[in-house]
Each structure stands twice: as C-alpha cells, then as structure tokens.
Amino acid sequence: MIELAGLSKRYGDKVAVDRLTFAVRPGIVTGFLGPNGAGKSTTMRMILGLDHPSAGDVRIDGRHYAQLKDPLTYIGALLDAKAVHGGRSAYNHLLCLAQSNGIPKRRVAEVLDTVGLTTVARKKAKGFSLGMGQRLGIAAALLGDPRILMFDEPVNGLDPEGIHWIRNLMKSLAAQGRTVFVSSHLMSEMALTADHLVVIGQGRLLADTSMPDFIRQNSRSYVRIRSPQRERLLDTLHESGITVVEAGGGVLEVDGGKAEQIGELAARHGVVLHELSPQQASLEEAFMQLTAEAVEYHAHADPGLGPQDRSAGWKGRAR
Amino acid sequence: MSTQQPPMPQAPASQPDWQAAPGGSYPAYTSPIPVVRTHLGHALASEWTKIKSVRSTMWTLGVFVLLVFGIGLLAGSVVESNSGSESLADQDPLQFGFFGLLLGSMCIITLGVLTTASEYGTGMIRTTMVACPSRVRVLAAKSIVFFAVAFVVSLVTSGLVAMMHASMLQGVGGTSSPTGDEWLRGTLGISLYIALLGLFSLLIGSVIRHSAGAITIMIGAVLAPLVIALFMASQSLSRVREWLLEYSIPSQMSCFYGNSLSNSGPTGWDPLWIMLGLSAVAFAGACALLQQRDV
After folding, report:
1. Are β-strands A55-60 and A2-11 bridged in parallel, bridged antiparallel, or unpaired?
2. Which of A189, B46, B182, B206 is placed for a possible disulfide with B116 were both Cys, Cβ 3.0 to 4.6 Å?
3. CA distances from B219 to B99, B225, B248 (A)
4. pTM for this entry
C-alpha cells in the first residue's frame, strides 16, 4: 500500500507535482498514466525517498521510505534502465544490490533466470540493448521478492515478446497479493494490464478510477454521416432536435446518437446518405481529451493540423 | 467532446489513516526471503563488490604501482650513478621515493573521485540510494572501503620502493642508514597521507557529482599553489609565497621525507593531521549536502 497525501514538488517557480493524493492498493495493477513531463517519474522518485517533497507526504504501509530497514525486500523499483554502471557485469550489479540488503546470493541467479539474462550475466551492462537494460532493471526490482513493485515505463525498448512477458509478469505479481504500480504514457498499454487507473497531467490528479469505470465514462460513441444533400440533412436533424457537429471534409457527427434512428429519419425525408456508421472513440482519444489541457510539450510540426487531425496522427503512432 | 471528467478534489484531502497500515487489515504478499535489518556491514560488502568489479579500479591502481616503482627505480639509479663520495652525506636514502609517489597520488585522486562521482554520471546512484536509503551510511561505506584499498596499495608499494632504495643506495655518496622514524614516515606516514588525499577527493566527488570536474579541481588544488608560488617574485607577496610553499600538497608530502622547501611550516607527521582535519570537514560537508539535495 502506497499512500500519497498532498504530495507536491516545486523546482523554482515550476510546479512538477501538484498536491497529489491517492493510494495504490495491493492485489491489483495500478496504472499511472500521464503525458511526457506530467510528473510521473518525479512522483515515483519521491515515493522512493530520492527527491524531497516540497509539501505533503508519502508513506509505504505507514512508513517513510527512509524508515524501511530492508528496503529491497519490501519494495522493488525499476526507475530507469540506465541507472547502472556500464562497466559492471549484470551479475555483479545485482550482487552488490543483494549484499546491501542482506539478500541471499542465490537470488541473483534466480532473478537473472526469471528475466532471461543468464547467458549474458557476466557481460558488461554497457553492451546491453535498451531491452536488455530494461530486463536488468526488472531483475533488480524483483531481487528482494518484495511485496510492492514500481515500474517506470517498463515496456520502453522491449520487443513484442518482451512486452507480452512484462504484461503477464505484472498481472501474476498482482495476483500473488502484491502492490504493483506501473507508469506509462500509453493508454493502450494500460488498458491491457491495469485494473485501476491514476491519471495525472502537469502534476495534477485528473482521474483516480477503476479501469472499467474509466472505459465506461470515457469512451464516446457517436454516429458518422456523409450525405450529398448536406443542407437538407442538417435541417431534418435540426427539426428533430438532434445536435450535429461538423467534423470537416463533409463529415457530420452526432454524439451518442442511434444510427437506426437517423437512418429512418433520413429515409422518411428522402435524404440520400453515403455513409451512416456508428463509431466508438478509442481510450487513447479519451486520454488525449482528459489531458489535452495538461500536455506540456505539444508538437507543432505542421501548423495546419487541427486538434482532430493531430489526435488521429497520435493515435496512429501509438498503435 | 463533453467527456472531460471533473478533477478529483485535492487540496485539503482527509489524511489517510496511517495507523491502519502495517500488517493485517488487507492481505499482502509475504516474501519467503528472511527479513534482515541492514547495517553498515551490508553497505561495506556492497561497496567492496562495486570497487573490485569495475575496470577503472584496476587501471588507476595499476598505473599508480607502475609510476611509483618506475620513477623510484629511475631516481634511484640516477642518484647511484651520479653521486660523488660525499655528495649525499648524512642524507636519508628513502627520500627518492617522493617523486614517484607525488605523480602516483594523481591516480589515487582519480580513483577516489570516480568512486562517488561516476555513480552520478551513470545514474547508478539512484539504484544505490534506493537499496540503502541512509545516505550517510552509503558515503561512510564508500569512504571506508576506498580508504582501506588506497592505504593497503600505497603501503605495499611505498614499502617495497623504500626497501629498494635502502639497498640500492647503501653507502652511496655517504648516505646514512635510515632511522626507524624515517622508515615509518616514508612508508606508513606517506601511505596514510595519500589515502587521506584520495578520501578527500572522494568527498569532493560526492559534492561536485561530476567526474571530470572533480578530478580537475583536485589536480589543480594539488599542483597549482606550488606553481603559482614559484612565480611570486614580488617582495610584497613574499608571505603568501612562503605560506603556499609550506602548505601546498607536494610540500606536505615532502615532509614525510624530511626535505621541506623551507625551514618553517609543517614538519614530521604534521601534514597527516592537516589532511585528517580537511577530510573530516569535507565529510561533514558532503553528508550535509547529501541529506539536503535530491539524488
């Protein structure tokens, strides 16, 4: 159980984390979602006692991180894959961590086997690919067989097989009754692994909800219509009290509308339709909307792109 | 486009019930690994593994041994072949170890800085501090392990060079046979001093957090005062010049061989106490900064 109460971090005038209050519960995977620069890593560093909070408090089962006498057997963390001395072998890296917490030496071989790095255990870490570095970081997190696990962007740099593996690993860790807290900037990734969702943007809490609730509340359904008799269709819909949004390119959208109802309406008034399709906005779009105000680094490569197009492009990359 | 969720209420959130936290109230995973209350011993074992598992340790110490032996041998043979019958009358033959150890100390400085600063360069420091949240314990463990390694290597090397010089230069140019105190200062004394100089560098590395920066500062601090003093010709600067000549690191090191640049200033074992004081102050400063700063 990790509990944050009004946790804040300021760097000069800039507020990186702004009064975060939430709890991460055992037995489930809690996703920690936010755009780049939202303050996810800063929050995780404060949980681990690396950064001092400017205000507020964070406790792990009621205690501050610095009060843990055996931190690695209590909480394991993957912060970033590069937090390794490149000149040291994977085995020695894990060995020095094990020794610092009095963890038996045999665990080093065990976790190396778990993450599949046994064959390169004696190789220097600087020769590792991003994916191998990520696996070494996960091995370090698992070393003490801790009851709480934190992963900061664990799927970065992993191949599809590796991503599949880490998903199953997180689920099985949570199923054993452990607390699993995992950050990501990919909604699609979270939708597959997380049971609970904490969303932040510009350091502020935007949502703290279960995954099914988030999907129910945030997946917008709408009907997409194209018609050569646009004006007539608009009039017809308007008369029936249906609100229409013009989405550009001759496409009309009706929020929450029923395709059947609109189709029958058009038939009754003799309006020709070229397209009438029910649509479901993806969770990515829901996440985009939720954090739209809170995205720190917007890409402005093409000034002609509207928000709609930009979200489509973003979605395309994410998949 | 109306799916925006109202933000969660935040600011004066009710305090979570800390008391209910540990143990029973919710089912939690219990690790089969025995729980250990960690202490300095664990940190020492960890730092020992760290220092011996990187190649830079072998390189810096290897170059140190080569420099001290090589320059010692060179100095010894030059002195042996160029000495007249009375040119070294009543002099200590161990003094020629100084040149090698002065250059070799640069290696110890480098290793000292790397012990702390390289962790900041690689990001390893975050892993280290997560594994051991007591930052002072980490610094203490690093200091103890480094000091022990630097002292043992310096003692063995300077001891062997001293024995080599004593046998090479026996009776050459009328040298005296080294006294017990001269033996002690030329081996134990200088080794403690060099290890302390390295420890001071380790602490500077922890403060500066940048390997190249800290090494530059330390080498500058060792060599610059003496070089600057050499160019202080003006009479009005003579007192500054005198002070720099007496207290610069090379001058302090030469005290262990009884051949200071001046007649006043530190003598005998004094430099050891000076460096010990400096290191204690640096340790306190580095600890205060470690506690205060974010990792």
Report:
1. antiparallel
2. B206
3. 16, 11, 12
4. 0.84
Q: Dihedral through CA B51, CA B55, CA B57, CA B59, nearest 10? A: 170
Tell me the pLDDT tens digit for each residue of A270-292: 899 999 988 877 778 778 877 87
Query: Is A94 within 8 Å of A101 (Cβ atoms)?
Result: no
pLDDT at position B22 is: 42
Average pLDDT over residues A166-190: 91
Q: How far is CA A157 from CA A80, A162, A307, B2, B215, in A?
A: 11, 9, 28, 35, 34
One-letter amino acid at A238 equals H
B216 falls within a domain: yes
Max distance between CA atoms of chain B, in angstroms, equals 102
**A176/B10 Cα distance (integer angstroms):** 31
Give dist(CA A3, CA A63) in Å, integer: 10
Are A85 and B42 inside 8 Å of each other by CB? no
Q: Is residue B2 part of a domain?
A: no
Rounded to two decimals, the ipTM of the complex is 0.85
Count of CB pairs separated by less than 8 Å, A with B: 190
Q: Could you tell me if residue A284 is inside a domain?
A: no
Whether A105 is covered by a domain: the verdict is yes
Q: Are A118 and A108 in contact (CB under 8 A)?
A: no
Q: For chain B, list residues with pLDDT below 70.
A: 1-28, 85, 260-262
Instruction: Tell me if A305 is assigned to some domain.
Output: no
Residue A114 and residue A188 share a domain = yes
Residues A207 and A97 in one domain: yes
Scanning A147-186 for CB atoms below 8 A from B yields: 147, 176-179
Nearest to B38 among A26, A102, A207 (CB): A102
Max mean pLDDT among A61-75, A286-300, B40-54 falls in B40-54
A6 touches B: beta carbon within 8 Å: yes
Whole-number pLDDT of residue A285:
79
Specify if A153 maps to a domain.
Answer: yes
Same-domain check for residues A79 and A191: yes
**A64 to A46, B139, B186, B239, B290: CA distances (angstroms):** 10, 21, 50, 54, 18
Helix boundaries (H) for B209-248 = 211-230, 238-247
pLDDT at B260: 66
Q: Which phi and psi angles does B282 have, rounded to 5°?
A: -65, -35
For residue B286 the two structure tokens come to 């580095």
Contacts of B124 in chain A (CB under 8 A): 83-85
- Asked whether residue A188 falls in the same domain as residue A229, the answer is no
What's the whole-number mean pLDDT along residues A107-131?
A: 93
DSSP, collapsed to helix, strand or coil, labels residue B248 as: coil
Determine whether the interchain pair A207/B128 forms a contact, defined as Cβ–Cβ distance below 8 Å.
no
Measured distance CA(A268)–CA(A253) in Å, rounded: 20
* Separation of alpha carbons A3 and A113, rounded Å: 33
E strand intervals along chain A: 2-11, 14-24, 29-33, 55-60, 75-78, 148-152, 179-184, 196-201, 204-210, 221-226, 245-248, 251-255, 275-280
Q: Which residues pair with A31 in a beta bridge?
A: A182, A197
Rounded Cα distance between A107 and A103, Å, is 7
Q: Are residues A250 and A203 in the same domain?
A: no
Residue A183: name the closest of A45, A13, A4 by CA. Answer: A45
